[in-house]
Design brief:
- The complex is a heterodimer of chains A (269) and B (391).
- Chain A has two domains: 46-156, Alpha-Beta Plaits, CATH 3.30.70; 165-267, no CATH class.
- A three-stranded mixed β-sheet of chain A has the order 4-1-6.
- In chain A, 48% of the residues lie in helices and 14% in strands.
- In chain A, a hairpin with a 5-residue loop joins strand 2 (77-87) and strand 3 (93-103).
- Chain A has 269 residues and is an alpha+beta fold.
- Chain A has helices at 4-22, 56-59, 67-71, 112-116, 143-146, 150-156, 158-198, 211-237, 241-245, 255-267; strands at residues 46-51, 77-87, 93-103, 122-125, 140-141, 147-149.
- In chain B, 41% of the residues are buried.
- Chain B has helices spanning 2-6, 8-17, 25-59, 75-85, 96-114, 131-152, 156-187, 192-199, 214-230, 242-245, 255-280, 296-317, 323-351, 356-375; strands spanning 202-203, 206-207.
- The longest helix of chain B has 35 residues, at 25-59.
- Chain B has 391 residues and is mostly helical.
- Chain B has a two-stranded antiparallel sheet with strand order 1-2.
- In chain B, strand 1 and strand 2 form a beta hairpin.
- Chain B has one domain (2-375).
- Classes of the chains: A alpha+beta (269), B mainly alpha (391).
- At the A-B interface, helix 1 of A face helix 3, helix 12 and helix 14 of B.
Chain lengths: 269, 391
């Protein structure tokens, strides 16, 4: 009959009207400034610069290679290289950005800077409340405003951050192994003439007698070293299980925060 | 005591007027009445806006405005301040005079309608013999103001909105009038005061409202449909059609003039609800005889607000009609039904007292309603489209 549908519809809206007072989970909206929906892990808004350790200026991973500046489609990044150098995460001396500015009003959140960065130095933040009353200065973020700790990165993108940490740890271990191998080779080279000198003496108590053995071991070491490094990286990945098991009763922190701590320790240097 | 509460405003007016010399008293009384109307209806407008915003929110599973004041009750005041402080933009090519006059005419005309509505016992500003006619004359004038707004803006959306509004309002004016004519037939009077007085009788404690008769109920339904269309409310809000025409005829209005349009629209709703209350719901008379101690004006205003609630409820439920559906519905269904209702009312009048007329009149209306609803309003099933020349 004509009008039946209208009555059905009216009943439906009446049900909604009454139901919204009774059950809270009927309400689809969130009262924003007070209540918030947690941002998704894959959310991305605006880039930030990652630093390791506690001092943002020392720990900044960025080496001012300017790849992001060149790749940025709307050209919102401005970098000035430093004159001096500082050690990076593996201890190699690198230049660093004396100035690193990103214009919030120009950035289009495309994440291209993150994808091209070879040093894992720039990542996307989930902070979206970037409005300011100062429309010129307030929208140009400098180095200090952009620098955020690795712990923050772990908090907003846990999976991605631990992957990055594992990669960095592996790289660092590789570099260290290479350095160690080089050092060992150098030591062996230095020891070889000494051994030839001491060989006729055949004295077992002299420290130099161990040198050939050490050289032998060093030759075999790079392989072993890399495997152990890989294991260490794995341990860093699976870190939450190990450290949180023991200190859990003592510390009131949730086990979630244990992961970034463990991760940062492995790559902290 | 109850008598005094009932006549509170009348006594207040008489008391205030008594301070003036005799030959000034008539004019002063009218001015006081105008002040009363200009105070009470905008207040109801604010209340209606609040109810609409909160109620619609709840119907859509939202909370609605709750920031300004406790539970957001001061929201209409915040809206008013916002509208008043906004810049008033007039298009360069607009006809400035007409552009300015349109909202003023709308509000003035909407207020004029209240002059003849009896808001309580002895509470009517002008008790004229043809007050129903006067009311419809004023109601029809809103079309002029809407067309003024659309034409003077020099904007295609405004003009389209105004064209739609005029087409729609003229189409629905006919069933609106015809459904009211039934009441005039039964009471034999065009005076709204008289119409309420006729309904103010009780049998076994139940009132003699016209909605409680078969032809009155049918007329009330037709009246409600036509009134919704007449005030450009959803589902008949094609003239505004946000999704199609920006805002229809008031696209080019901003600031205070926009607020006037908004006020005019809600005053139209209030006045047409007031007329519906007067014609069908017994005006200021109580719904049961044992409730007669409640002041009459409380009954009138609560009935008006109840009608507004229904309008809000319908707005929260129905989607907008298409232009052809709108016109088909007006001319093919509502108009024939009102014409039939005139005949049924005449039958009722001449069948005399008794239960037989209840059965006969109800049967005619229901049968025709069902048959017309099935045949006229059936969804047309079109076949696959055929092209005569473009094969």
């Amino acid at each position: 009959m004509l009008g039946e549908g209208i009555l059905k519809g009216l009943a439906e809206t009446a049900k909604n009207f009454a139901g919204s007072f009774v059950s809270e989970d009927r309400l689809t909206t969130v009262e924003y400034p007070e209540q918030r929906i947690p941002t998704a892990e894959a959310a991305r808004v605006f880039p930030f610069l990652v630093y390791d350790g506690t001092d943002w200026e020392k720990g900044l991973r960025c080496v001012a290679c300017q790849i992001c500046e060149k790749e940025c489609p709307p050209k919102c990044i401005y970098i000035e290289k430093s004159k001096d150098k500082k050690p990076d995460y593996v201890g190699k001396m690198q230049i660093y950005p004396a100035r690193f500015d990103i214009d919030v009003s120009v950035c289009m959140s495309c994440q291209i800077c993150v994808e091209v960065c070879p040093f894992e130095a720039i990542k996307m933040d989930t902070e979206f409340e970037l409005s300011t009353s100062d429309r010129f200065g307030g929208l140009l973020f400098d180095r200090e405003q952009l620098a955020k700790s690795n712990e923050h990165y772990h908090k907003i993108h846990p999976t991605e951050a631990s992957e990055v940490d594992a990669r960095l740890a592996e790289e660092k271990a590789k570099v260290e192994a290479k350095a160690k191998a080089a050092a060992a080779a150098a030591a062996a080279k230095a020891a070889a003439p000494a051994a030839s000198v001491t060989a006729p003496v055949k004295s077992e108590s002299t420290p130099a007698a161990g040198a050939p053995k050490a050289a032998e071991a060093a030759a075999a070491k790079p392989m072993a070293q890399t495997t152990t490094a890989a294991k260490a990286a794995d341990a860093a990945l699976n870190a939450p299980a190990a450290p949180s098991g023991k200190p859990a009763p003592a510390s009131t922190e949730p086990p979630k925060t244990a992961a970034p701590d463990a991760g940062s320790k492995t790559s902290g240097e | 005591m109850t008598e005094k509460a009932d006549q509170l405003f009348v006594l207040l007016k008489d008391w205030l007027v008594s301070f003036l010399p005799g030959n000034w008293q008539g004019v002063a009384g009218v001015i006081l009445g105008v002040i009363g109307i200009a105070a009470i209806y905008p207040t109801l407008f604010a209340l209606a806006v609040l109810m609409e915003r909160k109620g619609l929110g709840r119907m859509q599973n939202r909370i609605g405005p709750n920031r300004v004041g406790p539970f957001g009750v001061l929201q209409p005041i915040a809206d008013a301040i916002k509208s008043l402080t906004k810049e008033d933009v007039v298009p360069v090519n607009a006809d400035k005079t007409v552009h300015f006059l349109a909202p003023v005419v709308l509000v003035v005309v909407a207020f004029m309608g209240f002059a003849v509505l009896p808001a309580g016992r002895n509470m009517v500003l002008v008790d004229m013999d043809a007050s129903l006619l006067f009311y419809f004359a004023m109601g029809a004038s809103t079309e002029v103001s809407i067309f003024m707004a659309g034409w003077s803006s020099r904007n295609k959306y405004s003009l389209l909105g105004a064209m739609r509004a005029v087409a729609q309002m003229i189409s629905y004016e006919v069933p609106l009038l015809l459904s009211s004519v039934v009441i005039v037939m039964m009471t034999g009077s065009l005076s709204l005061v008289k119409i309420v007085e006729v309904q103010h009788h009780y049998t076994w404690g139940f009132p003699h409202w016209y909605i409680l008769t078969p032809w009155g109920l049918a007329a009330f339904v037709m009246y409600a449909i036509a009134a919704t269309a007449e005030t450009n409310r959803s589902p008949f809000d094609l003239p505004e059609g946000e999704s199609e025409l920006v805002a229809g005829y008031f696209t080019e209005y901003s600031g205070f003039k926009f607020a006037l349009f908004f006020l005019g629209e809600y005053l139209g709703m209030l006045s047409i609800s007031g007329l519906g209350t007067t014609l069908f719901l017994g005006g200021w008379s109580a719904p049961f005889s044992f409730l007669e101690w409640v002041p009459s004006w409380i009954w009138f205003f609560s009935k008006v607000m109840l009608s507004i609630t229904v309008l809000i409820w319908v707005r929260g439920t129905l989607p907008r009609l298409r232009q052809d559906q709108l016109m088909n519905f007006a001319w093919k269904f509502v108009l024939p039904m009102t014409l039939l209702n005139l005949g049924v009312a005449a039958l009722w009048r001449f069948m005399g007292e008794g239960w037989l007329r209840w059965i006969v009149c109800s049967a005619i209306l229901i049968v025709v309603y069902v048959v017309a609803g099935r045949t006229e309003m059936r969804r047309k099933h079109f076949g696959p489209r055929s092209y005569r020349y473009a094969e």
